[in-house]
Amino acid sequence: MAPLMARAGIAAERAPADFARAKSAKESAAPTMRYAEILTHVHAALAQEWGVPSTAVENTAFDGSIPD
């Protein structure tokens, strides 16, 4: 998530709350989705929220950064 934060100029103090909110929303919307898939969606959602582009490759790479 650090590259995305850097592009968006997001402070390290803000990112955990934004991540938790996006993750919780996705888990509520898709309770049976694998955690890795949730992370892909969370990365894309954060990019959109923070107003920066992200690619499918970046979003998918993020799902491998945290174990299931």
Summed up:
With 68 residues, the protein is mostly helical. Helices cover 68% and strands 0% of the residues.
Short descriptors:
mainly alpha; single chain
What is the helical fraction, as a range of percent? 55-70%
From the N-terminal CA to the C-terminal CA, the straight-line distance is: 17 Å
Q: Structurally, how many domains make up the residues?
A: 1
Per the principal axes of the C-alpha atoms, what is the gross shape?
A: globular
Oligomer: single chain
Rg calc: 11 Å
Describe the sheet with the most strands: none
Describe this structure in words.
The chain has helices at about 1-10, 15-30, 35-50, 55-65. The protein is mainly α. The chain has one domain (about 1-5, about 15-65). The protein starts with a helix and ends in a 5-residue tail after the last helix. The model has no long low-confidence stretch (mean pLDDT about 95).
Topology, element by element:
Layout: H1 2-8, H2 15-29, H3 35-50, H4 56-63
Helix pairs in contact: 2-3, 3-4
